[in-house]
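Ligand: coenzyme A. Inputs:
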Amino acid sequence: MSAPVVLQVAGSPVSPALVLRPWRMEDVAALVEVSRDPALRRWASPVVDNDADGARWVQAQQRGWAAGDRFGFAVLETQSGSVREQLAGNVVLKEVTSGKPVAEVGYWTAAHARGRGVASRALEALTSWAFETFEADGLERLELRHQVDNLASCRVAQKSHYDFDTILPAAPPAFPRDGHLHIRRTSA
Ligand SMILES: CC(C)(COP(=O)(O)OP(=O)(O)OC[C@H]1O[C@@H](n2cnc3c(N)ncnc32)[C@H](O)[C@@H]1OP(=O)(O)O)[C@@H](O)C(=O)NCCC(=O)NCCS
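Predicted complex:
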């Protein structure tokens, strides 16, 4: 993949347009800022505490793009009447292997941007891109995992047509409670 992938999501009367593009080092300060949020620290990993952590995290995303097995997108909200874009979240396609029928998605939304469809709209754009890009290489389904008590994440999965599939047993310490596996297939 030579040119950086940029995905556009149209806005609505209540929500600004979104731009999804690979993470850049210039995102580190905003990443550190949004990572102070307790919900993000609880549900998303890894924890980013400072600029050095943030730089390592962005570099890991960049290595994923270079290796072709993990595709992390910064989700930016455009500000109406301005060219400025503000970091609103993250969506990621991971565990991608040529010829393998399944890969996984993940996401988080910055606290200031929650509740206006950022995660679900960005996930829809990621899903379409993933199937368009990797279906010819054997990709048939995408998996989404969340802990049972993460109700907002379960709602994002439902809204994005990732159907509930099965209960995943707890796996402490990383996953102290049971989880849900949701699946979306190419035909959905
Ligand atoms: C889960 C998360 C990504 C949702 O982001 P978002 O941009 O607010 O998502 P959306 O606006 O697209 O949708 C959120 C939905 O969850 C619902 N919701 C929010 N909090 C909820 C709660 N406590 N219980 C039930 N539903 C809830 C909202 O009402 C909305 O549904 P609706 O559109 O039907 O009203 C965000 O809360 C987050 O980043 N959490 C911390 C990190 C995380 O959990 N990542 C996922 C790990 S699996």
